[in-house]
Amino acid sequence: MSDLDSTWKEALEHFLQPFLALFFPKIHDDIDWTRGHVWLDKELHKLTRKDAIGERIVDVLVKVYRKNGKERLLYIHLEVQGSYEAVFPQRLFVYHYRIFNRFKRKVCSLAILADDRPTWRPKRYSHTLWGCRVTFTFPIVKLLDLMPRLAELEVSSNPFAIVVASHLMAQQTRDDPVQRRIRRMGLYRKLAESGLSHDDIAELFHLIDGTMPLPAAEDELFWDEIEQWEKEKTMPHMTRIERRGLERGRAEGRAEGRAEARAEILLRALERHFRVAAPETIAGRIRENTDMDLLEQWLDLIYTVNSMEEFQQRIQA
C-alpha cells in the first residue's frame, strides 16, 4: 500500500461519520452513532488476502447499528488515483458475497472513485447463463464531480470535505509544485482558523501532507512560510498541537522525518485495530525505529496477530 493509499485509509477510519454525512447522508442518518461502530479490517484481510481479481487499493469493513437496532455491515472501497479497470465491478461483487457469506449479515458496498478519468463510472456487475442472471449494483461517488464545489469544500465544517479538497487540489497541481505549495498554504491557513477541534486540525494537517506531497525544495519553502505566518498572526496553531510526524524535517533529516510520519500512521492503525491504547513500551519501540521497510512489515503484521500483546512479542523478537 502506497503512502497515498495509507493516507486515504486513515482518513476513512478517522472521519467515518463525516465521510458518510458528506457522501451518503441517508446512510449516515440511519445509523445509531451512539452505539459506536467496530472496525473489521482483520476479518476483511482474511477474506481478500488470497484474491487474484485485480489489486485491492483501499477498503475497510465496519460494523454499525441502524436506528431500528439491527446490526449491519458497511463495506467501503476506494480507488485512489486509479484508471479504468474491467474487473472492478466483479471484484466488488466477489467481496460483497464473501462478506455476506462470512457474517450472514446484510452488507452495503460503497465505491469511491478518486481517479481523474471523467467517463469511468462503474456501478453494476452482472452475468447471465441459460436464463440465470445475477445483477449487483452499488452506489458510487466520483470525487471529480466535486471539482466545481472546491471553494465550498475548503471552508466546510465537515472534516472529510477538507480531505477531498486537498485531493482535488493535488490533481489540479500534479505538474506544478509551486502552485501546489501555494494552494496547500492557503488550505492550511483556512483550516487553522476553521474552529475545528485541535485533534481534528492535527489529523487533517497530517492527511493534507499525505495527499499533497511537495518536492524537497518546495517543502522547505512551505514550512518557512508557515513559521512566518504564525509569527505574523500570533496564532501558533501548528506548534500548539501535536503534529504527529507531519513535518518531515529539513533537507538532511528528510528521510528520518518520513519514518516518523510512517511510525505515527502505524501506531494509530495499531490502536484502532485492537481498540486499546498502545503501551509505552510498544509506542516507544515503534517511534524509535527509522527503518521504513521494517515499519511497513509491522503495519502488515497488525492483521496477522490476535492481540496487542502478540504484536509486541513479534516486534521485539
Structural description of this entry:
The chain is an alpha/beta fold. It folds into 3 domains: 3-138, no CATH class; 148-247, no CATH class; 251-305. It has 15 helices and 7 strands. The chain has helices spanning 3-14, 16-23, 25-30, 41-48, 88-103, 150-154, 159-172, 177-192, 198-211, 216-233, 237-240, 254-274, 280-287, 292-301, 308-316; strands at residues 38-39, 58-65, 71-80, 107-114, 124-129, 132-137, 140-142. Helix 8 runs antiparallel to helix 9 (198-211), helix 8 runs parallel beside helix 10 (216-233) and helix 12 packs parallel to helix 14 (292-301). The longest helix is centred in the C-terminal third of the chain and has 21 residues, at 254-274. Residues 52-56 and 236-257 have low confidence and may be disordered.
How many distinct domains?
3
* End-to-end Cα distance: 25 Å
Cα-atom radius of gyration: 20 Å
pLDDT < 50 stretches: 52-56, 236-257
Using the alpha-carbon principal axes, give the shape: globular
Name the features.
single chain, 317 residues, alpha/beta, 5-stranded mixed beta sheet, two-stranded antiparallel sheet, 7 strands, 14% strand, globular
List the helices and strands and how they pair.
Blueprint: H1 3-14, H2 16-23, H3 25-30, E1 38-39, H4 41-48, E2 58-65, E3 71-80, H5 88-103, E4 107-114, E5 124-129, E6 132-137, E7 140-142, H6 150-154, H7 159-172, H8 177-192, H9 198-211, H10 216-233, H11 237-240, H12 254-274, H13 280-287, H14 292-301, H15 308-316
Parallel strand pairs: 3-4, 4-7
Antiparallel strand pairs: 1-2, 2-3, 5-6
Helix pairs in contact: 1-9, 1-12, 7-8, 7-9, 8-9, 8-10, 12-14
